[in-house]
């Protein structure tokens, strides 16, 4: 087969599998164990916090916590989502002021929020900051800072 025809054939094959939702370049998602749960221990839903500095305590059931880059079965690390909805579940979790990464394996963190109502939610990420399959996330809570 001439080189040009081979290139066209490969391009057509790549397009066909891409349109079908599969890509040879895609990273498979890390499987989550059945029954795993992530939750916010403190603050509680509806809490009123005096001053903007607070500790957030993060809980995990049915899995272990380990730092980013460590690939172990049933192990991940916390991401705290502040005032945002869940990100896409097949991509790396953003890292910004609304998506806090705890890649050292932290289970509590001191954060500072301005006065007003805020939402908090946890999302567990794998060694590469990608949500598990199925994703493991907490209930979204609302707190008020005064």
Can you describe this structure in just a few lines?
This protein is mostly beta strands and 146 residues long. The chain has 1 helix and 9 strands, in the order αβββββββββ.
Q: CATH superfamily assignment?
A: Immunoglobulins
Largest sheet descriptor:
6 strands, mixed
The low-pLDDT segments are: 14-25
Distance, first to last CA: 72 Å
As for the CATH topology, it is Immunoglobulin-like
Q: What is the structural class? A: mainly beta
Number of domains: 1
- Overall mean confidence score, pLDDT: 88
Describe the structure.
With 146 residues, the chain is mainly beta. It has one domain: Sandwich (Immunoglobulin-like). The chain contains 1 helix and 9 strands; from the N terminus they run αβββββββββ. It has one helix spanning 3-19, and strands at residues 37-42, 48-49, 53-61, 64-65, 75-82, 99-101, 108-112, 116-125, 141-145. Strands 2, 4, 5, 6, 8 and 9 form a 6-stranded mixed β-sheet that branches. A 3-stranded antiparallel β-sheet has the order 1-3-7, with no helix packed on it.
Compile the SSE list and pairings.
Layout: H1 3-19, E1 37-42, E2 48-49, E3 53-61, E4 64-65, E5 75-82, E6 99-101, E7 108-112, E8 116-125, E9 141-145
Parallel strand pairs: 2-9, 4-5
Antiparallel strand pairs: 1-3, 3-7, 5-6, 5-8, 8-9
